[in-house]
Design brief:
homodimer, about 400 residues, alpha+beta, six-stranded mixed beta sheet, about 30% helix, globular
Chain lengths: ~400, ~400
């Protein structure tokens, strides 16, 4: 038995964690572009990274450290330090070497343009502005943004039956892009739960599947996608079920927020796929729907185009049959198991639903029990404008 | 030894083939919307169809016939007869039953809106307008169009060393879409070569991989994609190598034309991937590049964004390394095996290349000998306009 309560504080909600954002001159004007997350005691750290084989330097640097504990994450925006080769990793070592004495085994995370070396001097100077006693989680969440239009943070307090209390908090950025080739998704999660590295890694891996990996803005997997989870055990307490549920809520919230903030997106659409041969097939269908250009443009046009949804299901590679497939927009069924169900009245109702900025499309494949939910957005002129904008 | 010569005549170039297009009132005004291909002697027929599991009724009707010879293909546009269930197949039987006596085992092909029953009476009436003595290949090529902006046909005469002569001709439509959910690619190929059904099917299957299946406008595989190849053996002669080369030229030409005509497309881009672990990996990379939203929008913006290309290669699932990858826009190398190669001069040269409406991007993965070439186009405002346009 446990109680979950949403609280303020983002990555500083858990005991002993500090964060802030500063302006190092990487972005124009006085915009914040560097952040840190610091714990006053050493942390276990679990992480998941992009599956893109062109992993950015910060990810290679992290992986090369093997088993380690840390108390510091340095984050910069505007430059992803990707495709920078060995020099990119060397730049990280040089930067981290300049951090204060009480920083142990620091790691770095970057997001921004691909293929340009880090502006080392500016970053070293920016790090000197960090005040490790600050708990400005909101400013940190802002500093890691690239073209997000709003910062993303969330935290929970978990109270256990025996009175024990622990916290999980997080910040994330992603799904907004102005400069060409800007890397996408970063998420930093902190907790004072007394949880082992192995347990954290296991729960993190499991939750990534149905949250961040279920979200798609444009189907492109960047060179820098990162989720880091740090625990300093300061609460002295833990409960696996409560921790898993809270972490899932946090990751699901952030994944949805990223898609909602997708460039040029006007709609957050949830695709609930059920009745598939198995969960893997349901996932294949759900992801195909989030990535289909024809479905995304139909969403933008608020056109209840179930034919494109059916075609995308059929093309996905998953097992599917015309005769057992049912498609609904919220509670309006537009296609049912081989019957052309779509008349003027249906179309009107479905169109009304599509005018909302968030709704669910249900696809029941009618074969077995496979189930998966994914999150996508529409594709409109703004996406093209943002991404075709010549900018080097 | 053989000689290939491009000739006029499209699907009527081969001896004994006839074709025409008529207006049945499916499209607005007097636009042609129904076509036929007829041979005055029975044909062997080989075909490849979409891998989409929601195969349209005409494809199910064809497959249900098992082994057969035919002398007639009926084609209509505006309606794909897809997601129409058993009734859709029944409609085909009723329509085909009204054709003249000399038509044997006719098959049907449709393209257009998904999820609406065929306008049977109009189609039956339209078929009565067919004059089987006509050889109007251009009109037939026009009648099968949906939102193509130009018709697509091509033919070759093949002269063998021993003086024997045969012909292969073809027409196709595809990659243009106005109405939501309009089905995409149809191709009809005729030949008087004295080739067996088995040989034709084998050569067709092999050539589809590097031509139609290497072309992508928006990555969506329709419910109706079809290639039909009919041979009536009237030339009495055949040569496997010559036939294969001519067929490849024809299919490659039509595949490229389809992409060039892709909705809203302003650029036809050829992605030549080499140095992959194997051909399968090269194909994975090439297709990923044609389908990446970020690469496509960069093409539209004429932005030499090699970072997105590298990221797409890395995300594709194929084996790839930063240190062995080389990327070039035509003869301008923008990234070479781990070295950041891109300066202001490079950028200027690469931008100039991207202003052309057709060019090649080379990706050498530098691992082994895997090779594949794919064709894609850019993604601009027009694509969104065409596909988001509310139309039911």
């Amino acid at each position: 038995m446990y109680k979950l309560t949403k609280i303020e504080g983002g990555v500083c909600a858990a005991e002993g964690f500090y964060a802030d954002g500063v302006s190092a001159g990487l972005k124009s004007g006085a915009a914040k572009d560097m952040a840190f997350v610091y714990s006053d005691t050493l942390c276990e750290i679990a992480a998941t990274f992009t599956t893109n084989k062109m992993t950015a330097a910060p990810i290679r640097h992290f992986k090369a450290k093997g088993e380690f504990q840390t108390n510091f994450v340095l984050i910069n925006s505007k430059n992803a330090n990707a495709m920078t080769g060995k020099a990119g990793i060397k730049d990280i070592d040089e930067i981290l070497a300049t951090l204060p004495q009480n920083v142990k085994n620091p790691v770095m995370s970057s997001t921004g343009v691909i293929g340009v070396r880090l502006p080392k001097e500016k970053i070293i100077a920016g790090a000197k502005l960090f005040d490790l006693s600050k708990q400005n989680s909101a400013t940190a969440a802002e500093a890691i943004m690239t073209t997000d239009t709003f910062s993303k943070q969330i935290a929970y307090e978990i109270e256990l039956a025996d009175g024990g209390v622990f916290h999980i908090g997080a910040m994330a950025k992603g799904a907004g892009m102005i400069n060409p080739a800007m890397a996408t998704m970063l998420c930093f999660i902190t907790t004072d739960a007394n949880v082992s590295k192995e347990a954290m890694q296991k729960i993190l891996n499991k939750n990534v599947e149905t949250t961040f990996n279920a979200a798609s803005v444009d189907g492109d997997t960047s060179t820098n996608d990162t989720v880091m989870l740090l625990s300093n055990a300061k609460s002295g307490t833990y409960n696996e079920e409560a921790f898993t549920v809270a972490l899932h809520n946090i990751m699901l919230f952030l994944a949805r927020e990223m898609v909602r903030d997708g460039e040029g997106a006007t709609k957050l659409v949830t695709y609930e796929v059920s009745g598939a041969k198995d969960n893997k097939d349901a996932q294949i269908v759900a992801k195909a729907l989030t990535n289909s250009l024809l479905v995304k443009t139909a969403l933008y046009g608020e056109d209840p185009n179930w034919g494109r949804i059916a075609s995308t299901v059929g093309a996905s590679g998953a097992l599917s049959y015309e005769d057992t497939l049912t498609i609904s927009f919220e509670n309006v069924c537009v296609y049912k198991k081989g019957k052309l169900y779509f008349d003027a009245e249906m179309e009107k109702k479905a169109s009304e639903i599509m005018k909302m900025d968030s709704f669910t499309i249900y696809c029941d494949l009618g074969i077995a029990d496979g189930y998966f939910t994914a999150f996508g957005c529409d594709l409109g002129y703004e996406y093209v404008k943002i991404n075709a904008d010549y900018r080097t």
